[in-house]
Amino acid sequence: MQLTGKVVIAQGGGPTAVINQSMVGAVLESRKFPQITRVYGAINGVEGIVNEQFMDLSQETTNNLEKVAATPASGLLSTRVKPDEKYCEEIFKVMKAHDVRYFFYIGGNDSSDTVRIVNDYAKASHYDFRAIHIPKTIDNDLMLNDHTPGYGSAARYVSEAFIGINQDTRALPGVYIAVIMGRHAGFLTAAASMAKKYEDDGPHLIYVPERPFIVDDFLADVKEQYEKHGRCVIAVSEGIEDENHVSIAAKLSKNVEVDAHGNIQLSGSGALGDMLSNLIKERLGIGRVRADTLGYAQRNFIGSISNVDQIEAREVGEKAAQYALLYNRDGSVVMDRVGDYAVDYRLVDIAEIAGKTKTMPAEFLNARGNNVTDAFKNYLRPLLGTNYPTAHRLRAPMVEKILKK
Amino acid sequence: MQLTGKVVIAQGGGPTAVINQSMVGAVLESRKFPQITRVYGAINGVEGIVNEQFMDLSQETTNNLEKVAATPASGLLSTRVKPDEKYCEEIFKVMKAHDVRYFFYIGGNDSSDTVRIVNDYAKASHYDFRAIHIPKTIDNDLMLNDHTPGYGSAARYVSEAFIGINQDTRALPGVYIAVIMGRHAGFLTAAASMAKKYEDDGPHLIYVPERPFIVDDFLADVKEQYEKHGRCVIAVSEGIEDENHVSIAAKLSKNVEVDAHGNIQLSGSGALGDMLSNLIKERLGIGRVRADTLGYAQRNFIGSISNVDQIEAREVGEKAAQYALLYNRDGSVVMDRVGDYAVDYRLVDIAEIAGKTKTMPAEFLNARGNNVTDAFKNYLRPLLGTNYPTAHRLRAPMVEKILKK
């Protein structure tokens, strides 16, 4: 019943801070099974398979695997290639030639779609083969998963950035905007909310792609918060859209860049933040307005990785190997929340995950669509890890004035 | 000989991740001296003095002071106000009214200039008064200091960001630019160099304000590195200037914003990064070019504070109190490197620090002006703290190809 042959593990799409935990989990678990002749890593995702760029991870030391597991961003390198029928044919020529019988692909919804296509092709070719998708994405937008490996660490980075930014804008007031990754789902932007400890702390406003971004409403919100607190800290998703579902960033961009999956480039440019900043200066007449685009540090910052995220990422990799090698099954590993706080794993049909996008449920967003609810904060809190920092304020009494000018 | 009266502590200019360590060091030390009737914190720097906004830190708990010390960004809030003669007169009316005899101002070179003006005014008014400048700045640009409190933590943040960014661009190649804070001095930008572990790691190019930024040279450098490595990771100071000392960012900016010290706004906008990114796309024809502006997280990120920086920031605050309260002296606390690695402190005349800027010495920059030397790395290494992370790579052998297409 168990297939004898090789394992290939690959990583696709944007990296995360814990994607190598999943890779190492799958490698270490696969190496325990006697029917596995070798464990290969494909370099640059499916490109590495087609080009026969395999690293023999059966010859990697356990120590170095553990060190790589703690290192952010795909250790096997990545790709944005989305295989079509022709590409899959090439993949199978290589799989057969190398006697590969198990394929573990770590990625988001685009990568899960790749696993689905490759697996359909295997079935159609009557090649005996198990393919499992291992979830990862900082966007937290995979169907069925309570949350995805990579999200907790990115969320921790964003919220830690806002802890400092909130203190900074208390010290030197003004309006501050941070543009955060998230094309269709606002989960990562919403994580900024965890920086708010005291009533007047920021972020004061949070805008996500799930709700239409109306410029006049936005300006009214900013004015209200600025008048109330003397400052305003704002978190905005890069993927915010107007009421007609037109991306606000795309409206601005002169040279729109599109990838193989048809996605417009949103990250790696300060255009959206600068536009919002100018809008506030011009329409509200506020002098000190600053906009940062948090950028690539969000998905791979080594200094604020969630230990809960690390453990879960390791486990989804291990579970993928167990489902394939012990149970001879295909599919996508899904993470369920089964306690407060505990998780468990199951394998689902890849078609339930592939190419679909989960967005924030309505209960996580307030009625006006400019902030999150406590339900969201309760959802996120355990994912940030066990030693999450918090900001403290002086609270001594003020001195009575003498000159009273 | 020892003056009986109150202490006022204030914080000025841009926050750092450890500026509250210095504040708490000065508060805790001042509270030990019997001649000190109260320890006040001025809210919003010198503005708080003029407006009699004092918090009575003699009534703050030691626990809360320690918690605030570990929190980034000025706990007493900050200001960009630079006092003139009239303003100093107002300051002294308040100082006299409250019987303030000691003034500790934590800040950079603009703030040290404030201390100098205030102290000159005190002498001219025959008011018996001790004023000490406590150094802080992420820019590391204060004269005489080997380095300044705040720099180590900001440097650690920048280098940790580049560890992830370097891995990210290995996984998904292209050109990546990060614009880093630093108006006149390139120390913080140069910190990106610590992310380079292996020969082909980024950052591959580093541009600082100390050397003229020549567009054609820049493009030739990028082309060379991109052809060599298939990718290019670049660190650029926000303050880079052309051969005529004209700021590259200011050339681009339509609405130039100028603060009370005559400084042009450089941070809080993605304009410089986007311009350099477009230049590479257009002139070199490289498709995937991304630019991030690291932004305000650099100076107040709670997740990657250097423990060495924390200790030193605490010590400069303590030493300031000791110089004033034990020795009845004025001046600026300076940090010397006295071992490999050890520091010691001394007090210098404020005029030696005030309004001056230290830049990177020639031995820290390579001949072409597009990278740092090992001398710089040896200088920076101990400042990053004792548990600095490092990235690891897989190093198993590649598998021989079978199909060899």
TrEMBL record, chains A, B:
A biological process from GO: fructose 6-phosphate metabolic process
UniProt function note: Catalyzes the phosphorylation of D-fructose 6-phosphate, the first committing step of glycolysis. Uses inorganic phosphate (PPi) as phosphoryl donor instead of ATP like common ATP-dependent phosphofructokinases (ATP-PFKs), which renders the reaction reversible, and can thus function both in glycolysis and gluconeogenesis. Consistently, PPi-PFK can replace the enzymes of both the forward (ATP-PFK) and reverse (fructose-bisphosphatase (FBPase)) reactions.
Keywords (A to Z) from UniProt: Cytoplasm, Glycolysis, Kinase, Magnesium, Metal-binding, Transferase
Catalytic activity entry: beta-D-fructose 6-phosphate + diphosphate = beta-D-fructose 1,6-bisphosphate + phosphate + H(+)
Known partners and oligomeric status: Homodimer.
Annotated positions for site Important for catalytic activity and substrate specificity: 110
Domain Phosphofructokinase: 6-322
GO cellular component terms attached to this protein's record: cytoplasm
Binding-site positions, diphosphate: 14
UniProt protein name: Pyrophosphate--fructose 6-phosphate 1-phosphotransferase
SUPFAM superfamilies for the chain: Phosphofructokinase
Pathways involved: Carbohydrate degradation; glycolysis; D-glyceraldehyde 3-phosphate and glycerone phosphate from D-glucose: step 3/4
Signal sequence range: none
Gene name linked to the record: pfp
Annotated binding of substrate, by residue: 137-139, 181-183, 238, 296-299
Entry's family note: Belongs to the phosphofructokinase type A (PFKA) family. PPi-dependent PFK group II subfamily. Clade 'B2' sub-subfamily.
InterPro entries: ATP_PFK, PFKA, Phosphofructokinase_dom, PKF_sf, PPi-PFK
Cofactors required: Mg(2+)
Activity control mechanisms: Non-allosteric.
Annotated site (Important for catalytic activity): 136
EC number(s) stated in the UniProt entry for this protein: 2.7.1.90
Active site: 139 (proton acceptor)
The keyword Nucleotide-binding is annotated on this UniProt entry: no
GO molecular function: 6-phosphofructokinase activity; diphosphate-fructose-6-phosphate 1-phosphotransferase activity; metal ion binding
